[in-house]
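Anyone up for a design puzzle?
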């Protein structure tokens, strides 16, 4: 869609909204639901209607109604086509926000990043929603606030906090097909100057194939106290899972092999404290200190019961100062420091050709400034600057040799305008940069290559430039709409370059290099309707068209070259529709999504191919409150996916069926029904 056509559509929708608001005959338009919600994943919390970026917010009630268990499940429901799981529950799941790469997203827990430094991209399938009260999705560059990796967007998780006065909570049980069973509990106690929030969850399910099971468990504890004018919060969280990954490709020529004992596990544990202290009428100090540790066991193909372990530990501090010198003006400064220590085993000894354990250390320091200024009633301007510096050190554990394997610096900025023209109309536009500093894995592999041939393989940060424009509003008292467009260009792209020398003995000089760039652009529109009285009902329709183009490998001769992952798994078109009917004590929901054709990699020939047929996802939900403190819910998920046998997968019987796999070579989740009971007190 060209700029002139987009401008015309925005203007037409805006005029329609204002016309509906000005007509005295219909009821006055209600305020948009977003007007009462604040975005906490900003320099300081602001109303959604004052942030110049696309924002999606899901509160605890909506998360529970969707029946999701991991961040991957939730994101697949709210961003169909942007989340790609390689199988059923617990499988590796990547997010491709705004058409960018899976490594271009940052996941936050209470403002502090969860990204694993031993992995190239965050695995949403390994992140449990235990103890999560709220999830925010902010699309577009957020590196000014959160630094490296925040090119495509930010997923911010917020834990349960103080809650209302007194004691309250809930307990739940669930069961379902494929042996699904689980239990959860939560309690919140608040009174006087202190509060406590705690809970836990455990779940087990067979994924439909023999020996393919999924286990998830976790718990959290948060407590707070008011010390004079200051608020002090302490927190602890522990969550983990074990999942089978029985689908693998081995041998030459390659063939599919089913190994039911092949499994992976992941666990993260975090603890820390935060302080919120008003220093005066115009000054507010915030500080968060957190320690985070995580471990992952990756399966070994030749010995399924064995695993290659990766682990990391992170200590991070964020110190922010907010100054409001006058009404409508706020200046925020932030200073961040982070130290990562990780252990892995992907460094190859050039003499023995064996994987050698190593310790990687990452040190990051950043400073940022952001100005938020209300230029006129309803018109907000935001501008920010940031500077990051980082270095990575590597120590071989067998010899103790320590080296500085890489350093990088990056600066970034963003600016945007948000214009609330009426209670039911918001226009916004923003532009900014993002960046991604190479992590320990990438620097380590390049150090390995340099040890082989004496050649230096320096790395620079990836950089991006993004422009966004959008409008949200209501008209006619019942209609809601949203229209957004964005374009992102990533340069200095980090591509993995395979060693093609076929030397003997092998050189192991595969490495990362900054080469080429990609462009991602798209338009998304949403239209919804709400109505009814005692019997309420409504529907929503979302359409997204996007393109991700490899700017340097786009000819017939080399379009799928060393950077082919830049264009994989980005659907050209995605559509989603949902509807609900709600009475005094019950509610029924239906959700249907269609993910269009896209490029993927054949799992046996490794040739880039088009998936051809679309992938469809159907979910149904019915809940009933027989009494005010009890909810019974029945949910059906993945209802259009065919139930495959092991032989079906091995033979490729369903390879041409678009509903059988969202990622080529991995069976889609099977149809599943869940019955749950939740008691609130």
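Challenge accepted. My sequence:
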């Amino acid at each position: 869609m060209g700029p002139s056509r987009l401008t015309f559509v925005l203007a037409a929708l805006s005029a329609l909204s204002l016309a509906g608001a000005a007509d005295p005959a219909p009821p006055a338009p209600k305020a948009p639901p977003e007007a009462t919600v604040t975005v906490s994943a900003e320099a300081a919390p602001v109303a959604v209607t004052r942030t110049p970026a696309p924002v999606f917010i899901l509160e605890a009630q909506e998360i529970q109604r969707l029946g999701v268990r991991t961040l991957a499940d939730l994101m697949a429901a709210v961003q169909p086509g942007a989340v790609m799981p390689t199988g059923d529950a617990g499988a590796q799941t990547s997010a491709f926000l705004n058409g960018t790469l899976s490594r271009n997203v940052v996941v936050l827990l209470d403002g502090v990043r969860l990204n694993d430094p031993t992995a190239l991209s965050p695995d949403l399938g390994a992140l449990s929603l235990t103890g999560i009260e709220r999830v925010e999705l902010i699309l577009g560059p957020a590196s000014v606030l959160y630094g490296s990796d925040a090119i495509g967007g930010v997923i911010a998780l917020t834990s349960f906090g103080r809650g209302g006065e007194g004691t309250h909570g809930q307990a739940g049980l669930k069961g379902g097909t494929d042996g699904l069973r689980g239990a959860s509990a939560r309690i919140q106690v608040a009174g006087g100057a202190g509060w406590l929030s705690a809970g836990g969850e455990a779940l087990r399910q067979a994924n439909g194939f023999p020996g393919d099971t999924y286990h998830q468990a976790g718990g959290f504890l948060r407590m707070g106290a008011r010390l004079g004018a200051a608020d002090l919060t302490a927190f602890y969280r522990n969550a983990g899972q074990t999942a089978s990954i029985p689908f693998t490709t081995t041998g030459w020529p390659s063939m599919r092999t089913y190994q039911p004992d092949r499994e992976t596990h992941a666990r993260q544990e975090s603890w820390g404290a935060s302080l919120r202290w008003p220093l005066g009428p115009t000054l507010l100090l915030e500080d968060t200190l957190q320690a985070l540790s995580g471990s992952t066991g990756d399966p070994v193909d030749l010995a399924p019961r064995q695993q290659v372990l990766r682990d990391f530990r992170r200590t991070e501090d964020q110190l922010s100062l907010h100054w409001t010198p006058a009404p409508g003006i706020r200046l925020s400064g932030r200073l961040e420091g982070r130290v990562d220590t990780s252990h892995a085993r992907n460094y190859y000894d050039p003499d023995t050709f064996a994987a050698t354990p190593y310790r990687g250390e990452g040190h990051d320091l950043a400073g940022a400034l952001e100005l938020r200024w209300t230029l006129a009633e309803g018109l907000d301007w935001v501008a920010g600057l940031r500077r990051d510096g980082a270095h990575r050190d590597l120590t071989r554990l067998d010899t103790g040799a320590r080296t500085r394997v890489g350093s990088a610096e990056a600066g970034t900025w963003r600016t945007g305008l948000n214009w609330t023209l009426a209670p039911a109309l918001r226009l916004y536009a923003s532009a900014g940069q993002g960046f991604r500093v190479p992590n320990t894995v990438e620097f380590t592999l390049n150090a390995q290559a340099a040890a082989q041939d004496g050649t230096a393989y320096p790395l620079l940060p990836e950089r991006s430039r993004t422009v966004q424009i959008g409008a949200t509003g209501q008209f006619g008292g019942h209609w809601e709409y949203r229209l957004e467009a964005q374009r992102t260009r990533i340069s200095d792209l980090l591509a993995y370059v395979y060693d093609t020398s076929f030397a003997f003995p092998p050189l192991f000089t595969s490495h990362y290099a900054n080469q080429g760039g990609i462009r991602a652009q798209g338009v998304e529109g949403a239209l919804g309707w709400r109505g009814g009285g005692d019997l309420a009902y409504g529907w929503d329709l979302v359409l997204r068209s996007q393109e991700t183009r490899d700017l340097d490998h786009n000819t017939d001769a080399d379009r799928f070259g060393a950077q082919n992952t830049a264009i994989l798994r980005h659907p050209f078109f995605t559509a989603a529709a949902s509807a609900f009917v709600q009475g005094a004590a019950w509610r029924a929901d239906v959700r249907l999504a269609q993910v269009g054709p896209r490029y993927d990699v054949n799992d046996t020939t490794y040739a880039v191919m088009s998936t051809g047929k679309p992938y469809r996802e159907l979910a149904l939900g019915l809940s009933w409150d027989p009494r005010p403190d009890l909810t019974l819910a029945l949910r059906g998920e993945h209802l259009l996916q065919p139930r495959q046998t092991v032989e079906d997968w091995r033979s490729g019987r369903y390879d041409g069926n678009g509903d059988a796999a969202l990622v080529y070579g991995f069976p889609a989740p099977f149809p599943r029904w869940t019955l749950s009971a939740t008691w609130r007190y």
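A detail worth pointing out: Residues 1-37, 557-563 have pLDDT under 50 and may be disordered.
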